[in-house]
Design brief:
Layout lengths: L3 H12 L6 H12 L7 H17 L4 E6 L2 E6 L4 H9 L8 H13 L2 E2 H8 L4 H9 L3 E6 L7 E5 L1 H7 L10 H9 L1 H21 L6 H15 L14 H20 L1
Antiparallel strand pairs: 1-2, 3-5, 4-5
Length: about 260
């Protein structure tokens, strides 16, 4: 394949709003330049590998990531703490803790009904599910055969793109999450998020709000951040394996959100 197409591949991936596959890149080239006998999808994939090697040798701060069956540009993992600091300034645009918890349950238990989600979380999930549907992170995937035939929910390709995953098999396993949570860099990132929460509380403080109200708000948000570290021993209806996954995946999802 001619070297000029390496630049074309870079441009198409950079300009695409969604992950673009090797087949889609090849289709564009054929539409513009006609059928090329010496170019196949395997050549596109090989070129992307070579481009990533070049980025790594040049110490570039970005690379081409395979996500949701296509390719997107992403920042280097080792730069996560800097990007995390920048992202903390826009923390209000991130998914809430409740949304992340619900999304984690759906991701690991899909397809799953709303009553099953509410049984695990212990609270009503109407608003959160509607929010996730609006963001296209989940979708209705059918109906359960149980009484009343409730709707089933599953994650979408947008979910994969949002968290930088190529497919659901790349979801972290419980053992991997435990290792991440013990990592010093992860603990440092969590402390920064905590400090950002405190700053938000200060900014939101009204002149008429007393110190007790601030303390209550602070305690509530701290409780949210530490949710994954507390086992719900009183919930006997949830299997131990599912409970462990749902409790420990929340901070990992938030970290992934910042990395990608």
């Amino acid at each position: 394949m001619e070297r000029i197409y390496y630049s074309v591949i870079e441009s198409l991936i950079f300009a695409s709003d969604e992950p673009i596959s090797a087949a889609e890149i090849l289709k564009v080239i054929i539409e513009i330049d006609g059928k090329k006998e010496d170019i196949e999808t395997s050549d596109i994939e090989k070129a992307i590998l070579e481009l990533n090697d070049s980025y790594k040798k040049n110490d570039n701060g970005f690379f081409i990531l395979k996500a949701a069956g296509g390719y997107v540009y992403a920042t280097r993992y080792e730069n996560a703490k800097y990007i995390g600091y920048l992202s903390s300034e826009k923390s209000k645009k991130r998914l809430s803790q409740a949304a992340l918890e619900t999304l984690a349950i759906i991701a690991y238990k899909q397809p799953i009904t709303k009553p099953e989600i509410e049984q695990i979380r212990g609270v009503n999930c109407d608003y959160i599910i509607n929010t996730l549907l609006e963001k296209n992170l989940i979708a209705i995937s059918g109906r359960s055969e149980s009484v009343g035939r409730p709707l089933l929910y599953s994650t979408t390709k947008e979910f994969l793109r949002y968290f930088g995953l190529n497919d659901l098999s790349e979801l972290p396993k419980p053992r991997e999450i435990e290792e991440i949570m013990q990592d010093e860099k992860f603990q440092e990132q969590k402390r920064k998020i905590l400090m950002n929460v405190i700053e938000e509380l200060i900014e939101e403080k009204d002149d008429n709000e007393d110190e007790n109200e601030i303390s209550r708000n602070y305690a509530e948000k701290i409780s949210d951040l530490e949710l994954i570290e507390t086992e719900n021993n009183g919930n006997e209806q949830i299997e131990e394996s599912s409970k462990t996954q749902n409790e420990i995946n929340l901070d990992n999802f938030e970290m992934d959100n910042q990395l990608t």
